[in-house]
Amino acid sequence: MRLLLTWLINAAALMALPYLMHSVSVDNVGAALVAALVLGLVNTIIRPVLVVLTLPVTVVSLGLFILVINALLFWLVANVVGGFHVAGFGSAFLAAILYSVISWALSTLLLNKDGNP
Q1: Which residues contact 35 (CB under 8 A, 6 or more apart)?
Q2: Distance between CA atoms of 33 and 83, rounded to whole angstroms?
C-alpha cells in the first residue's frame, strides 16, 4: 500500500511541475504515472551505479555532483517516456530539485512517521 501511495505522490509531483516551470510539460495523468514509475526504477537501479562511478567527483564537489546525476536521470526519463518533456539540461536540473521538494512535502503531509497513510 505504501509503495502505491508513494508512486501516486510522485506522479502528483510530476503533474505539479508544469505549473511551476514552463519548460516542463506532462501531457496527461497516464504519462505522469508512467514517468513516475520509470523515475523510480531509474533511481533504484541506475543511480547507485552512477554515484559509485562518480564518487571521486562527488567527494571533490562536496556532494553537489549528485544534483547533476539527478538532473541527468530526470532528463533521460523525459527523453524515454512519451508525454513527458523537459526543454534541456538546465530545466532538468531545476525540475529535479523541485520534483524532490514537492515529493518530499507531499509525502510528509500524507504519510505518517511509520509510513502508513
Answers
A1: 11, 14, 26, 77, 78, 81, 83, 84
A2: 11
The pLDDT, as a whole number, for residue 112 is: 76
Cell numbers of 101, please? 521538494
Residue 86: count other Cβ atoms within 10 Å of its Cβ.
Answer: 24
Instruction: Note the pLDDT tens digit of each residue in 55-114.
Output: 999 999 999 999 999 999 999 999 999 999 999 999 999 999 999 999 999 999 988 766
Task: Decide if 117 contacts 1 (C-beta within 8 A).
Answer: yes
* DSSP per position, 73-113: HHHHHHHHSTTEEE-SHHHHHHHHHHHHHHHHHHHHHHS-T
Q: Cα torsion at 22, 26, 28, 30 (round to 10°)?
A: -160
pLDDT at 9 over 60: yes
